[in-house]
Amino acid sequence: MKHSKSLNVLKTAKGQIEASIRMIEDERYCIDISKQLLATIALLKKAHTQILKTHLETCVRDAAYSNNTSEIETKIKELEEVIEYINKPL
Protein backbone atom coordinates (compact mmCIF):
# COMPACT_ATOMS: atom_id res chain seq x y z
CA MET A 1 0.00 0.00 0.00
CA LYS A 2 1.57 3.27 -1.09
CA HIS A 3 0.07 5.26 1.78
CA SER A 4 0.82 2.87 4.65
CA LYS A 5 3.12 5.33 6.46
CA SER A 6 0.49 8.04 6.23
CA LEU A 7 -2.17 5.65 7.45
CA ASN A 8 -0.13 4.86 10.54
CA VAL A 9 0.41 8.56 11.24
CA LEU A 10 -3.32 9.24 10.83
CA LYS A 11 -4.21 6.39 13.19
CA THR A 12 -1.88 7.93 15.78
CA ALA A 13 -3.53 11.32 15.21
CA LYS A 14 -6.93 9.68 15.66
CA GLY A 15 -5.80 8.40 19.05
CA GLN A 16 -4.60 11.86 19.97
CA ILE A 17 -7.93 13.39 18.94
CA GLU A 18 -9.75 10.86 21.10
CA ALA A 19 -7.39 11.73 23.97
CA SER A 20 -8.12 15.44 23.44
CA ILE A 21 -11.85 14.77 23.64
CA ARG A 22 -11.40 12.84 26.88
CA MET A 23 -9.26 15.66 28.27
CA ILE A 24 -11.99 18.19 27.51
CA GLU A 25 -14.66 15.93 28.98
CA ASP A 26 -12.51 15.52 32.10
CA GLU A 27 -12.05 19.32 32.26
CA ARG A 28 -8.28 19.05 32.16
CA TYR A 29 -5.98 22.07 32.21
CA CYS A 30 -6.34 24.19 29.06
CA ILE A 31 -2.62 24.27 28.25
CA ASP A 32 -2.42 20.47 28.46
CA ILE A 33 -5.30 20.21 25.99
CA SER A 34 -3.64 22.78 23.76
CA LYS A 35 -0.38 20.82 23.71
CA GLN A 36 -2.27 17.64 22.83
CA LEU A 37 -4.02 19.43 19.97
CA LEU A 38 -0.75 20.89 18.68
CA ALA A 39 0.78 17.41 18.64
CA THR A 40 -2.23 16.20 16.64
CA ILE A 41 -1.91 19.07 14.19
CA ALA A 42 1.78 18.22 13.69
CA LEU A 43 0.84 14.62 12.86
CA LEU A 44 -1.82 15.74 10.39
CA LYS A 45 0.71 18.01 8.69
CA LYS A 46 3.17 15.11 8.52
CA ALA A 47 0.57 12.80 6.96
CA HIS A 48 -0.40 15.52 4.48
CA THR A 49 3.23 16.03 3.46
CA GLN A 50 3.68 12.28 3.00
CA ILE A 51 0.55 12.05 0.84
CA LEU A 52 1.67 14.94 -1.37
CA LYS A 53 5.17 13.49 -1.70
CA THR A 54 3.72 10.15 -2.77
CA HIS A 55 1.44 11.96 -5.23
CA LEU A 56 4.45 13.69 -6.78
CA GLU A 57 6.47 10.47 -6.93
CA THR A 58 3.68 8.42 -8.49
CA CYS A 59 0.74 10.24 -10.04
CA VAL A 60 2.57 13.36 -11.22
CA ARG A 61 5.60 11.41 -12.42
CA ASP A 62 3.37 8.99 -14.35
CA ALA A 63 1.55 11.89 -15.98
CA ALA A 64 4.83 13.56 -16.95
CA TYR A 65 6.20 10.37 -18.51
CA SER A 66 2.94 9.74 -20.35
CA ASN A 67 3.42 12.85 -22.48
CA ASN A 68 -0.35 13.34 -22.18
CA THR A 69 -0.61 17.12 -22.06
CA SER A 70 -4.14 17.05 -20.66
CA GLU A 71 -3.13 14.71 -17.83
CA ILE A 72 -0.06 16.83 -17.02
CA GLU A 73 -2.17 20.00 -16.91
CA THR A 74 -4.69 18.27 -14.63
CA LYS A 75 -1.97 17.24 -12.17
CA ILE A 76 -0.48 20.75 -12.15
CA LYS A 77 -3.92 22.28 -11.57
CA GLU A 78 -4.58 19.88 -8.68
CA LEU A 79 -1.29 20.82 -7.03
CA GLU A 80 -1.97 24.52 -7.55
CA GLU A 81 -5.33 24.11 -5.80
CA VAL A 82 -3.71 22.36 -2.84
CA ILE A 83 -1.02 25.05 -2.56
CA GLU A 84 -3.67 27.77 -2.79
CA TYR A 85 -5.68 26.09 -0.02
CA ILE A 86 -2.59 25.72 2.19
CA ASN A 87 -1.85 29.43 1.80
CA LYS A 88 -5.44 30.50 2.41
CA PRO A 89 -5.73 32.82 5.41
CA LEU A 90 -7.49 31.40 8.46
TrEMBL record:
Taxonomic superkingdom: Bacteria
Cell location: Cytoplasm
Cellular component terms (Gene Ontology): cytoplasm
Principal cellular location given in the protein's record: cytoplasm
Subunit organization: Homodimer.
A molecular-function term among this protein's GO annotations: DNA binding
Transmembrane regions: none
UniProt protein name: Copper-sensing transcriptional repressor CsoR
GO biological process, alphabetically ordered: negative regulation of DNA-templated transcription
Keyword annotations: Cytoplasm, Metal-binding
